User: Which sequence fits this backbone?
């Protein structure tokens, strides 16, 4: 399982590709502006495989996801959309599939590193007819 200690408070330090990513996943423009260079503090409380993951936004708004590794949980996206997901631990990383993106979190050099990757729904189909 390779469980890692995630507990702590982590202050936003920087991001990469924010605008491209949030536009591709369809985040509303008001949420995009709110999140841009936002000094979010992420607080993680961990008790074994049980987690409470809270994002503290400037102005007092918070988003909290509570989950147990390997069990389905009610979750909320950065845009406020509610969904169900099973959070996994893979190689010391917390891994979850959100509705429009794949999310991982790990501790690297004492920093919480979160990576969200867009999940493409594009399907390419090629049809061939038999050659006589």
Assistant:
């Amino acid at each position: 399982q390779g469980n890692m200690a995630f507990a702590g408070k982590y202050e936003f330090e920087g991001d990469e590709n924010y605008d491209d990513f949030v536009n591709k996943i369809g985040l509303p423009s008001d949420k995009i502006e709110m999140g841009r260079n936002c000094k979010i503090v992420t607080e993680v409380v961990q008790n074994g495989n049980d987690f409470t993951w809270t994002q503290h936004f400037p102005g007092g708004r918070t988003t909290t996801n509570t989950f147990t590794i390997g069990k389905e949980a009610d979750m909320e996206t950065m845009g406020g959309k509610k969904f169900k997901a099973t959070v996994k631990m893979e190689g010391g990383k917390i891994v979850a599939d959100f509705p429009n993106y794949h999310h991982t979190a790990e501790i690297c050099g004492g920093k919480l590193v979160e990576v969200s990757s867009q999940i493409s729904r594009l399907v390419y189909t090629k049809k061939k007819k038999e050659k006589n």
About this structure: The mean pLDDT is 84.
